[in-house]
User: What shape does this take?
Amino acid sequence: MIENQFNSETLISDVKKLKVLLIVLTIIQVGYLIFSDTKLLMKLDLEYKIKWLVWGLHLLTALIFIGYNWKKMPIDKNSKTNNTYMILFMGIIGMWLWIPNKRELNKLTEK
Assistant: This one.
């Protein structure tokens, strides 16, 4: 019983951390899209290749989500495969759809 409670606490904690990571990524990508026509971003893009940094951060975040999906989520293999495709092909929207809400977290921790 204590081991199951510990796993549920770590699952909830990890999902909260992933949400924070996804919020940061969303803010960066929306900011990049909003300011993509300004002279400052053009200069940053020419000097520092900011476009590649944003893309690399997105790819790293997607890999973290996929790794967490396969290693720590207590779901069956078919759901893991579907979630992986959703994260890969839908990008940031797929990551937002993948994040479990409180009701889904409670179901996962009861198992």
Q: What stands out?
A: Residues 27 and 33 are 10 Å apart (CA to CA). The chain has one domain: 2-110. The first helix runs from residue 2 to 34. The chain is about 85% helix and 0% strand.
